[in-house]
Amino acid sequence: MFALDQVAVAYGDVPALAPTLLDIGAGETLVLLGPSGSGKSTLLRTLAGLTPFTGSLRFEGQPVTDWRAVRQRLGYIIQDGGLFPHLTARGNVTLMAQELDWPAERIAARVDELATLVALDAAQLDRYPGELSGGQRQRVAMMRALMLDPAVLLFDEPLSALDPITRVRLAEELRAIFARLGKTVVIVTHSLGEARFFGGTAVLMREGRIVQQGPIADLAEHPADRFVTEFLAAEDAL
User: Fold this and answer.
1) Edge to edge, what strands does the sheet with 209-215 contain?
2) Mean pLDDT computed over every residue of the chain
3) What is the distance between the alpha carbons of residues 138 and 125, in angstroms, rounded to a whole number?
4) How far is residue 21's CA from residue 3's CA, in Å, rounded to a whole number?
């Protein structure tokens, strides 16, 4: 789905992502792990076309030359949903479809389908973000990300701003949705527990570099260096 060859990001003279090689397969769940400032969100933003970079990035086998077209194949979700406060939940969900001149009937049918998927009702969709709970806002954000039926879902710490009970419930719902839809999923988290819960491939980062990549169990059983061991021990201690 994605192929990165020596992709790097710098803000002025400050490197944020070292030259990186990374392949993300279709239907794969990839979890980007690491401490604050490790480069995981920078890498995610690069995949979303939100950050200038050097190197080569291919999407679905082709070099990216038009991010406008690629972004229609991506669903991007940030902490607390990132919803527009002046629009209702329904308005947030349908915004891009309206921009693309979808017929009203198609929009309504898609909203009904997605509302059922994320367990929201019509009354909730007619509220503004400030009138919704954190979990409800994340469900609306999920609907918005899925509205155009993207091939890839990109999550930047989608559960970190939620209370523990809501976080567990929404994580269970997200995992079920991932399994049902079969999308390519990339999740940024600093939580080892979340990484284990969602499974798939883990990429542990430090100072803008990939330190180790593979199944979560491999990080514990075959750590690449001392940092991997220390990171896992620190996460398990919390």
Assistant:
1) 74-77, 152-156, 184-188, 29-33, 201-206, 209-215
2) 89
3) 12
4) 8
Query: Residue 183: CA atoms inside 13 Å, Cβ hemisphere, count?
Result: 24
Q: In what order do the strands lie in the sheet with 62-63?
A: 14-24, 2-11, 54-59, 62-63
Q: Any idea what DSSP says for residue 84?
A: -
pTM: 0.89
3-state secondary structure of 132: coil
For 16, the enclosing helix (H) or strand (E) is strand 14-24
SS3 5: strand
The 10s digit of each residue's pLDDT in 208-219 is: 999 999 988 888
> What pLDDT score does 106 carry?
96
237 pLDDT band (50/70/90 cuts)? low
Angstrom CA distances, 112 to 77, 141, 188, stand at 20, 15, 29
Mean pLDDT of 6-23: 94
Per-position DSSP letters for 20-49, written without gaps between them? EEEEE-TT-EEEEE-STTSSHHHHHHHHTT
Taking Cα atoms as reference points, which of 51, 50, 38, 70 lies closest to residue 8?
Answer: 51
pLDDT tens, position by position, 57-83: 999 999 998 888 898 899 998 877 789
Cα separation, 99 vs 228, in Å, equals 45
Taking alpha carbons only, the member of 183, 151, 157, 153 closest to residue 171 is 157
